[in-house]
Write a structure and sequence with these properties.
The chain is an alpha/beta fold and 320 residues long. It folds into two domains: 4-170, NAD(P)-binding Rossmann-like Domain (Rossmann fold), CATH 3.40.50; 172-212 and 242-319, 3-Layer(aba) Sandwich (Rossmann fold). 46% of the residues lie in helices and 15% in strands. It has twelve helices and 14 strands. A six-stranded parallel β-sheet has the order 3-2-1-4-5-7, with helices on both faces. β2 (30-34), α2 (40-45) and β3 form a beta-alpha-beta unit.
């Protein structure tokens, strides 16, 4: 039986991933961990360990104590926060990754998942339908760390025989946790502010086109890539994946179909330059053809769900 460790279980993706792993493999077979407390549902259902991925000794002790066989390593500083604390972000994102990879290698962990990002691309990358293999010259701390991480997981897989798997996430949209400092997180913040206040101040221009994915698709994709036989994988580093692309203006128009009085003001900040360096759309034909990946949620369906679920979440918080 699998014994799964989720590092970064309190974050946006980690929260939903931990819950779904519990649904599929049993709560007793999933250990959640982070440096900060998780949602009530995660804390109530799972064994939870407070851990810093920079503390390799404690991480090793945790792996041995729980008999971990698979690791989902999601702990990282995201793009916006990485630009504000570059050296700290490099330390967390890279030394943390090395700590986990070395333990995967040395402890015989069967499989590991590590998320890359569209941040690996840069201004010189083809902006529309960015292919699986292309020019990759990121100009952000987050993107540089993700590109370096891709090269290192491929090195470990080829030279040490590890089984580390990865996808390049676009912006991920969900309602269970609020935004965590990423450049695409406007697409999460906008729903909470629309429901709370009927207004949102957006830090990107209205015409900023970026790739996005609804959380349910992202979680299904992530667990699927971990469940596939190794022989089916054709990429040793990280797969392009995509679902939809839209601008803040297009998202606001869709929200107004449900909340007609919603208003938005555009006040671009330093994150605009980050967004401008990223692709507008992704060619994920390698993942779709060779792995059978497909997304199920488009923007109208995603917006309808987000408004409903965010409203219910905020209402529950009022009564707690």
């Amino acid at each position: 039986m699998k014994k799964i460790l989720v590092l970064g279980a309190s974050g946006q993706i980690g929260t939903d991933l931990t819950l779904e792993l519990g649904n599929r493999f049993g709560d007793a077979n999933v250990v959640a961990s982070d440096m900060k407390i998780a949602t009530d549902e995660v804390m109530d259902r799972f064994t939870f360990e407070f851990i810093d991925v920079l503390n390799k000794h404690k991480l090793e002790e945790l792996i041995e104590r729980h008999g971990i066989t698979e690791i989902y390593h999601l702990a990282a500083l995201l793009s916006g926060r990485s630009e504000q604390k570059p050296m700290f972000a490099w330390d967390v994102n890279m030394r943390g990754l090395f700590n986990v990879m070395e333990l995967v290698r040395d402890k015989g962990i069967e499989r590991m998942f590590w998320p890359s990002s569209i941040a690996v691309f840069g201004p010189s990358t083809p902006k529309h339908m960015t292919p699986q293999k292309t020019i990759m010259e990121p100009n952000t701390v987050y993107g540089i760390s993700k590109l370096a991480g891709e090269r290192w997981i491929e090195y470990f897989n080829v030279h040490y025989g590890t089984d580390i798997r990865s996808v390049r996430y676009p912006g991920i949209i969900s309602y269970k946790t609020e935004a965590g400092g990423g450049t695409t997180d406007y697409a999460v913040e906008i729903f909470f502010e629309a429901v709370r206040n009927g207004h949102y101040d957006c830090y990107l221009r209205p015409d900023t086109l970026l790739p996005m994915m609804y959380m349910e698709d992202a979680i299904r994709l992530t667990i699927d890539i971990m469940d596939r036989p190794k022989a089916e994988l054709t990429v040793n580093s990280s797969y392009n994946v995509a679902a939809m692309s839209f601008t803040p203006e297009q998202l606001a128009e869709e929200i107004r179909k449900h909340l007609p009085h919603f208003t938005i003001r555009y006040q671009p900040d330093f994150r605009q330059a980050i967004a401008d360096s990223w692709p507008a759309s992704i060619d994920d034909s390698v993942a779709r053809q060779r792995r059978g990946w497909h997304h199920e949620f488009d923007m109208p369906r995603m917006v309808e769900i987000m408004i409903r679920e965010v409203a219910q979440k905020l209402e529950r918080e009022k009564t707690d």
